[in-house]
């Protein structure tokens, strides 16, 4: 096989066979095929698209380019959740203990964040003593005995995706549905998931700004999952404004605890239920999505979900007392209010701009090397659709210094007050195929 012929084939709109796709991905991973040929091939895919079968073959070729995590020692159907990323997205912290309490094994591998706020591991490290450095044996034992454990990323997973994603970034080929869908799905499959639930965000704070694109991506990923024997479902959710009220690491842990207690923000709870019911259904712990949702609501009401959170924290060295006393979490020394300048209704809280403000405070990393401050962040006092009077606080800024002029200026630009406004619909669609 010659790479130039395969580029030409895709350029002219023909379908590549499984063997041809495997040849390309293997050759690229081991250095036999140069970047310039892969760039041309990716651009051909950008214009010519890939069939459902080609997308599945590309996904599995990338899975086979490196290690896969073997979770076969863990009993039950392992369901993983993936979010395409947003601002103040506290769902994993809520969902992991919640679905574990419903009997779905949570054997999660998680990463650190880049940009807006920290990743799940950063957030959990706001709990004193909590750690994710577990041996494979301890990880397996914890999931089998307690139904939940989170471990840091390790192993050489999907090296082909790493190389290809970096190349796409500099060749204007990131925005391609088949390439994005196979990239995300390859990572989840290599991490050992039997079933996958996807939260595809849309709006200003999302990777997919346009709702129709988000829907197409969700459908593409669900199709790949089902094609390769991993049952997959998706929720398309609004990320035009931040999710919940808290943006920042310790602040989001507190928000997750409130939500597990049944006292969290309505939008965060609604999204957790929309995703959680798919996880419980795919995990085989309910006969329908409705039954799964009833089960999750009951676990919150009875306190079982919060108890599972405490058990999980204690198992990994953290102080479970934070669940009853969130003031044990790191606290920023300054709390500064952002008063509304006018009467009206909140019409817009642009998610990405608010995320950037939180990052400037120190809640997120500008580069991989930056240190983050777990205590700082933002708490929204109003959401889109809420009435506001001049002088009411729009946001409480939790800061490490009194000088927050730049953050305030950015927040005023991100938040628009108008004569009328209504709350956006949070769950824009579900894909269950
Ligand atoms: N996120 C990924 O992991 N891959 C892509 O291609 C795009 C976003
Ligand atoms: Ca939040």
Written description of the protein model:
The chain has 433 residues and is α/β, with parallel strands linked by helices. Helix content is 44%, strand content 15%. The chain has a 4-stranded mixed sheet with strand order 1-4-5-13, sandwiched between helices. Strands 6-9-11-7 form a 4-stranded antiparallel sheet, with helices on both faces. It has a 3-stranded antiparallel sheet with strand order 10-8-12. The radius of gyration is 22 Å and the shape is globular. Bound molecules: uracil (URA) and calcium ion. Residues 88, 90, 243-244, 246-247, 252, 255 line the site of calcium ion.
Largest sheet: 4 strands, mixed
Distance between the termini: 36 Å
Q: Strand tally, please?
A: 13
The dominant shape is globular
Q: Report the helical percentage.
A: 40-55%
Give the strand content.
15-25%
What structural category arises from helix and sheet content? alpha/beta
Low-confidence stretches: none
Strand order in the sheet with the most strands: 1-4-5-13
Helix count from the secondary structure assignment: 16
Helix and strand run: HHHHEHEHHEHHEHEEHHHHEEHEEEHEE
Bound molecules: uracil, calcium ion
Radius of gyration computed on alpha carbons: 22 Å
For the residues shown, what is the average pLDDT? 96
């Amino acid at each position: 096989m010659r790479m130039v012929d395969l580029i030409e084939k895709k350029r002219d709109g023909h379908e590549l066979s499984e063997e041809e796709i495997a040849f390309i991905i293997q050759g690229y991973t081991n250095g036999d095929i140069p970047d310039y040929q892969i760039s041309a091939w990716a651009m051909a895919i950008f214009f010519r698209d890939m069939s459902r079968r080609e997308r599945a073959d590309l996904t599995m070729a990338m899975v086979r380019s490196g290690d896969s995590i073997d979770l076969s020692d863990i009993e039950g159907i392992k369901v993983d959740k993936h979010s395409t990323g947003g601002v103040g997205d506290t769902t994993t912290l809520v969902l992991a203990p919640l679905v574990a309490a419903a009997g779905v094994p949570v054997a999660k591998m998680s990463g650190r964040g880049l940009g807006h706020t920290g990743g799940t591991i950063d957030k959990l490290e706001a709990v004193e003593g909590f750690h994710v450095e577990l041996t494979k044996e301890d990880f397996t034992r914890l999931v089998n005995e307690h139904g939940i454990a989170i471990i840091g990323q390790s192993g050489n997973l999907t090296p082909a995706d790493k190389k290809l994603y970096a190349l796409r970034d500099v060749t204007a080929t990131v925005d391609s549905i088949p390439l994005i869908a196979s990239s995300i799905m390859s990572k989840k499959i290599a991490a050992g998931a039997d079933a996958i639930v996807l939260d595809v965000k849309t709006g200003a704070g999302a990777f997919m700004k346009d709702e129709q694109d988000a829907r197409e991506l969700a459908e593409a990923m669900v199709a790949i999952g089902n094609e390769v024997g991993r049952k997959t479902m998706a929720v398309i959710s609004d990320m035009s404004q931040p999710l919940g009220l808290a943006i920042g690491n310790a602040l989001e842990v507190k928000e997750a605890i409130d939500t597990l207690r049944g006292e969290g923000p309505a939008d965060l709870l609604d999204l957790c239920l929309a995703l959680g019911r798919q996880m419980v259904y795919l995990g085989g712990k309910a006969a329908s999505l409705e039954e799964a949702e009833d089960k999750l609501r009951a676990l919150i009401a009875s306190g079982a979900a919060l108890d599972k959170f405490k058990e999980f924290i204690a198992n990994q060295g953290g102080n479970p007392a934070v669940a009853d006393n969130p003031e044990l979490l790191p606290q920023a020394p300054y709390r500064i209010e952002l008063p509304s300048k006018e009467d009206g209704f909140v019409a817009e809280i642009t998610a990405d701009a608010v995320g950037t403000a939180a990052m400037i405070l120190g809640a997120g990393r500008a580069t991989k090397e930056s240190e983050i401050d777990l205590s700082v962040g933002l708490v929204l006092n109003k959401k889109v659709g809420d009435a506001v009077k001049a002088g009411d606080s729009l946001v409480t800024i939790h800061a490490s210094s009194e000088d927050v002029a730049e953050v305030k200026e950015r927040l005023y630009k991100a938040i628009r007050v108008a004569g009328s406004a209504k709350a956006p619909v949070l769950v824009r669609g579900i894909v269950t195929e």
